[in-house]
């Protein structure tokens, strides 16, 4: 039997072969397409399944810089009415005195916007369908990846071969592309699990994102737009919940009856939004830290969770991936205008150098916060609240943290400005 692919099964070559068509992979394909850069995008799942009601109940905080990226690639009009502005962030240690409030000045805009992942996916997928620079291959499994001196290719299980110039791993934390290249990980397990769902409540959230720290783990309430149709009990205000519990307790928490689960949430909310009810199914995600020892190889670049995965404590994971997208597209577009190939080693080195410091700094800060607030005991709590009170009284420090939350610090790619 001839092992060489039939010439009819080799598709036209593209600049990029993007493995993984999720939030980061598809944003990359669209951002590249706007610069005239072509791509094959391979996604294992069926887009209809990924965007079905109730499949992914997660919501993401989109920073100001990430919002600029979406607007700059033509998604602003579609996404603008779907996101809930985050006008301030309240950080508290178990509701005790000494909290911090991050609230920008009136002329500085919001700290970001909360979106359901489903809404972002729908907007990305709809745009991809109409983009001639994107060849989108769904329900497709990659069985072979090849990289050589003159190009790359991905072979699908149905025999089709997708040739290109640069291979991009965007498959998420368990990226087979990263593993196949032998790229190592600096990684550890937090031994915590995030329980994610959505709540309807009596009182409005006033566009405030709450991060409430308990010794067992953070408890975050993130503002979402009001429901268009009230619940059976007449509630329209809603928030996303990310409740971090020790992994040994996660199965038990997930198995609680709705009534008992709501009672546990009410205990931690202390009546701040009045009566509450569950309006989405509960999902559980183990929390780990992982950072690739490098994010490029021969004709290879990693983006998003394939390159770095972090604790969701400040909602920066997706935003970090979108900064990868902005930097990579800028480096590729500038280099290709100079006549260099996308897979050129010096092009990829520039991308890696640009992202290295931001990735390391952001992930180290978030890991430090997780560890600081995870120290149990009254003394630790008192020290934390003393520190938080000091930050509350220092406008310059609060501005620094707000710029970090907005994604506006460091050397920003043009697409994120």
Automatic annotation (TrEMBL):
One of its GO terms (cellular component) is ubiquinone biosynthesis complex. Its cofactor is FAD. Pathway: Cofactor biosynthesis; ubiquinone biosynthesis. The keyword Cytoplasm does not apply. It is an enzyme of class 1 (oxidoreductase). Residues 16-355 form the FAD-binding domain. Its EC number is 1.14.13.-. It holds the Pfam family FAD_binding_3. Keywords: FAD, Flavoprotein, Monooxygenase, Oxidoreductase. GO terms for molecular function: FAD binding; monooxygenase activity; oxidoreductase activity, acting on paired donors, with incorporation or reduction of molecular oxygen. GO terms for biological process: ubiquinone biosynthetic process. The keyword Flavoprotein applies. NCBIfam families: Ubi-OHases. Belongs to the UbiH/COQ6 family. This is 2-octaprenyl-6-methoxyphenol hydroxylase. It comes from Novosphingobium sediminicola.
């Amino acid at each position: 039997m001839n092992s060489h692919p039939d010439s009819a099964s080799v598709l036209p070559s593209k600049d990029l072969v993007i493995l993984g068509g999720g939030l980061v992979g598809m944003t990359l394909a669209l951002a590249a397409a706007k610069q005239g850069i072509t791509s094959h995008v391979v996604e294992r799942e069926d887009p209809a399944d990924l965007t079905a009601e109730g499949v992914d109940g997660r919501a993401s905080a989109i920073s100001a810089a990430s919002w600029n990226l979406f607007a700059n690639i033509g998604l602003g009009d579609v996404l603008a009415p779907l996101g809930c502005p985050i006008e301030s962030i309240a950080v508290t240690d178990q509701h005790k005195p000494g909290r911090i409030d991050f609230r920008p000045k009136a002329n500085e805009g919001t700290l970001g916007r909360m979106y359901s992942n489903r809404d972002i996916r729908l907007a990305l997928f709809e745009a991809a369908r109409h983009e001639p620079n994107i060849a989108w291959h769904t329900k497709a499994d990659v069985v072979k990846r090849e990289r050589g001196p003159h190009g790359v290719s991905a072979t699908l299980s149905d025999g089709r071969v997708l040739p290109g110039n640069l291979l991009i791993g965007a498959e998420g934390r368990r990226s087979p592309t990263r593993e196949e290249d032998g790229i190592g990980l600096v990684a550890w397990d937090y031994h915590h699990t995030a329980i994610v769902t959505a709540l309807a409540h009596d009182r409005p959230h006033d566009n405030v994102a709450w991060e409430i720290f308990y010794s067992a783990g953070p408890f975050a309430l993130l503002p979402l737009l009001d429901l268009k149709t009230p619940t059976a009990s007449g509630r329209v205000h809603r928030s996303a919940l990310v409740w971090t519990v020790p992994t040994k307790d996660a199965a038990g928490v997930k198995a609680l009856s709705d009534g008992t689960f709501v009672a546990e949430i009410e205990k931690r909310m202390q009546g701040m939004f009045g009566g509450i009810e569950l309006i989405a199914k509960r999902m559980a995600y183990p929390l780990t830290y992982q950072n690739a020892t490098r994010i490029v190889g021969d004709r290879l670049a990693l983006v998003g969770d394939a390159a770095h995965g972090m604790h969701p404590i400040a909602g920066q994971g997706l935003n970090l991936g979108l900064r990868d997208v902005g930097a990579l597209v800028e480096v590729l577009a500038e280099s290709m205008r100079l006549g260099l190939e996308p897979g050129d080693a010096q092009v990829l080195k520039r991308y890696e150098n640009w992202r290295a410091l931001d990735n390391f700094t952001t992930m180290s800060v978030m890991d430090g916060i997780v560890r600081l607030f995870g120290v149990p005991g009254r003394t630790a709590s008192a020290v934390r609240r003393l520190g938080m009170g000091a930050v509350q009284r220092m406008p310059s420090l609060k501005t620094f943290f707000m710029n970090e939350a907005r994604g506006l610090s460091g050397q920003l790619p043009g697409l994120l400005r």
